[in-house]
Structures are given as C-alpha cells and as structure tokens.
Specification:
The protein is an alpha/beta fold and about 180 residues long. The chain has 6 helices and 5 strands, in the order βαααβαββαβα.
C-alpha cells in the first residue's frame, strides 16, 4: 500500500494556531505532523540552532518541492491575548489556554496531574517583542512562497472558523481519511 505524501508548511506567528491546524490536518488526512517548534526547542537545548528564516526556506527548497504553504494571518491583539493566557505541560507539550481551553484544575495537567508552566516567552512582557521578531523574519519567507504560487493565506481570530477553509484547501490536494470538516 502506498503511503500518502503531502509536503506542506504551515506558517504563522506564535499563538496563531499552527499546532492545532497541523494536528487537525494530520488526523483528518492520516498524515504525520512534524513540528518545527519542537525541532527548534530540541536544537536550542542541544545548542545547535534552527533558523526560521528565508535561509531555512531556501534550504527546504533544495530538499523537496512543497505542495502548499498555509499562512495563518491573525491580528496582533488576538495573538497577544492568546500567548499571555497560554500554559503548557512541559513533558508532553500539551497546550492550555486559560481563556478558551483551560485545564479542569487551574495550573494542573488534565491527564497527568502534573503542574503546568508558562514559558518565559509567553509572558506578557516578552510577547510584543516576539511578535515583532516573527513579522520581520517571516516577511521574506511569505514573499518567496507567494512568488512560487504555493502560498494560501487565511485570516481570522478563531481557529475553528479558519479550519473549514484550510480543510477544503488540503482536500483539493489529498483525500481525507475522515469526511467531517470540523474536528
């Protein structure tokens, strides 16, 4: 049996819902999700670095041709609110948002009962600088993929409202495993 292959990249600033969209794509289409954020954190721990820049995009181009690039365009205020309310379970990477996806018990992971943490770069003081840095680095990457005709941008403030459009786009490239749009 041939395995499915879709070479896609999901771009978006921190807190834009990239992880949620990727998880839904993986589940709906039976694909494997490889998180650059996870690889980035692993490389930082190993002190080997991982650029999220035009250089990275050009290096990826030398390895493979992308089928599509999904860009999540979320307003600054929405991102600031999401990031400031985000807490994680360090061991699993599970993400909670105190506004719209809180844990059952404040500060405690629903599955393990272990404490949640707020990453330093999710604290309110760090968020604005982090978003500015992303915007500067992402602009040439977005322009590159736009010029190649593979960029598809989706704007909004809620992942659940953006998801049906992303699902329709991905469905045009690969057959879904599950026929329902909203997970």
């Amino acid at each position: 049996m041939a395995s499915k292959l879709l070479r896609a990249v999901v771009l978006g600033p921190p807190g834009s819902g990239k992880g949620t969209v990727c998880q839904r794509i993986a589940e709906s289409f039976g694909l494997q999700h490889l998180s650059s954020g996870h690889f980035l954190r692993e490389n930082i721990r190993a002190k080997s670095g991982f650029p999220r820049t035009l250089v990275q995009a050009e290096a990826l181009d030398r390895i493979c041709d992308l089928d599509l690039v999904i860009n999540l365009n979320i307003p600054f205020e929405t991102l600031k609110d999401r990031l400031s309310a985000r807490w994680i379970h360090p061991a699993s990477g599970r993400v909670y948002n105190m506004e719209f996806n809180p844990p059952d018990v404040h500060g405690i992971d629903d599955i393990t009962g272990e404490p949640l943490i707020q990453r330093e770069d999710d604290k309110p003081d760090a968020v604005a600088a982090r978003l500015r840095k992303y915007k500067e680095a992402a602009k040439p990457v977005i322009e590159l993929y736009k010029s190649r005709g593979v960029l598809h941008s989706f704007s909004g403030t809620e992942t659940n409202k953006i998801w049906p459009y992303v699902y329709t786009l991905v469905s045009s490239k690969i057959r879904p495993v599950h026929s329902k749009e909203a997970n």
